[in-house]
Amino acid sequence: MADKAPEDAYSAEPFVPSRGGLPALRKAAAGCRGCPLHRDATQTVFGTGDPHARVMLVGEQPGDQEDRLGKPFVGPAGKLLDRALAEAGVDPAEAYVTNAVKHFKFTQAEPRKRRIHKAPTLREMTACGPWLARELELVEPELIVVLGATAGKALLGASFRVTQVRGTVLEEEIHGRPERLVPTVHPSAVLRADDREAAYRGLVADLEVAARALA
User: Fold this and answer.
1) Model confidence over 19-64: pLDDT tens digits?
2) Contact criterion met (CB below 8 Å) for 91 and 79
3) What backbone torsions phi and psi does residue 31 show, to the nearest 5 degrees?
4) Which residues pair with 98 in a beta bridge?
5) Does residue 180 fall inside a structural domain?
C-alpha cells in the first residue's frame, strides 16, 4: 500500500488519472493515499472554480473549516481573500483556487479540543505535487498567485522566501511548464498580523500586480 511506504517514497502519482478533466481528477483525489495525511483528515479538499480560469491561486493546505466542508478557502481567510481580490480588480468567480496539499494537517491535544493547523513538510508537499501539476495542466492559467511561504516552497523549492519576492512577477518552469507567478502572503497571515489593516493593504497591492499582469 502507498501509505505503508517509507516517507521518502510518498507520492500521489499512482492515484492521479492520466485521462479525464477536473471532475475525474477531483473524484480520484478523494481516494488518495499517497501520504499519511489522509488518515486523520476528514476528506480530500480539492481545487474549485473556473476550469478555464486565467488566474490560479495556490495556498498551503485546507484549514479546519475547509476540511469539514470539503472546499478550499471557505473560512475567514477565504472571505478576506475574496474581498482583497475584488478590491484589486480580480473577480473571484473567474479564478481557480486550490492548495499545494489537499489534506488538513493538524495537532489536537484531545478529541474534542480545537484542531491546530500544522505546516506540512517538504516531503508531504512533494508527495501531493502530482495533483497540483495535473490541475495546472488542465486549467492552463495565464498566471499563478502564490499564497504564502509553504505554497511558494511547494512550487519553487525550499529556498523560496515570500518576503523577498512578494508583489513581483516571476517567470519559472513549474512541473515542466513555463509559468508566470506573483507571490504574496497567505490571507491567514493578514488575520494574524498585529497591524491587520497594513497587512491587508499589502495583500491588495500584491494582487493589483497580478491584475496588471493579466491586463
Assistant:
1) 999 999 999 999 999 999 999 999 999 999 999 999 999 999 999 9
2) no
3) -105, 15
4) 58
5) yes
